[in-house]
Design a protein that fits this description.
two-stranded antiparallel ribbon, alpha+beta, five-stranded antiparallel β-sheet
């Protein structure tokens, strides 16, 4: 079986999974796509109890050390259900939802957060198309080794975007020099910088402005800092 047939088979499987999600009853679909604070709090309490009773261990899956910080520590529900919490949340991926439950700040203050897996799905689809076409779809640079995506080259009529978990914005997708696709959170970061005027330093990764003020993490993104005009820019690597 050649690579093209394998790739098309994977795309068919993804389509079938998405079709199943779209056919869910409205109430059930909403429950699986809403970042409920009470569910996050329930899991946080379960994590705290687990850590206390396990002598400091955390119920997380093992990931490579190079994995992005926002998806590095997914929670392993089998270690806390049913002993520390009754059930897996309705919006968790393991229960048919769209969110991956993860931990941040695992050394100092393990904190439960969410990753929106719809974004991961869209980026995976782009990587699959890139694999089929064989070319890296670079356009104009928007940062050091970060580029706009040539969506027409990939077979799209219009540029693809992702719905922001923080605002009503539709966020662009960029491609880095490593050939991977990422979400561009510049719109949301710029809004925070303009409206809230937080104190930030050039050279610091400012994605914490999003992560600290939401249940959902800015996963599948590149690091940002600010320029001399206090505008968000991709960090040099």
């Amino acid at each position: 079986m050649n690579k093209r047939i394998i790739a098309l088979s994977v795309m068919l499987c993804i389509s079938l999974v998405l079709s199943g999600c779209l056919s869910r009853p409205p109430d059930e679909k909403q429950a699986s796509e809403t970042p409920y604070p009470d569910q996050v709090e329930t899991i946080q309490k379960a994590i705290d109890r687990y850590q206390e009773q396990s002598g400091g261990l955390l119920p997380i899956k093992t990931r490579d050390m190079e994995t992005d910080q926002y998806i590095k520590y997914p929670i392993e529900f089998s270690k806390i259900v049913p002993d520390f919490t009754e059930k897996i949340p309705s919006n968790a991926f393991e229960n048919g939802g769209i969110f991956q439950y993860v931990l941040t700040d695992v050394e100092e203050n393990p904190t439960v957060k969410l990753v929106d897996l719809r974004i991961a799905e869209k980026l995976r689809d782009l990587n699959l198309r890139k694999f089929i076409n064989g070319d890296l779809p670079f356009l104009d640079p928007v940062g050091e080794y970060v580029y706009e995506v040539d969506f027409k080259k990939m077979g799209f009529q219009e540029p693809l975007t992702v719905e922001s978990p923080y605002s009503n914005a539709h966020l662009p997708i960029v491609v880095a020099g490593d050939g991977n696709f990422y979400v561009d959170y510049s719109i949301d970061l710029n809004k925070i910088l303009m409206e809230q005027k937080p104190e930030v330093k050039q050279g610091d990764d400012i994605r914490y402005l999003l992560a600290d003020n939401s249940l959902v993490l800015p996963a599948y993104s590149l690091p940002y800092t600010v320029n001399e005009d206090n505008e968000p820019v991709f960090m040099k690597r």
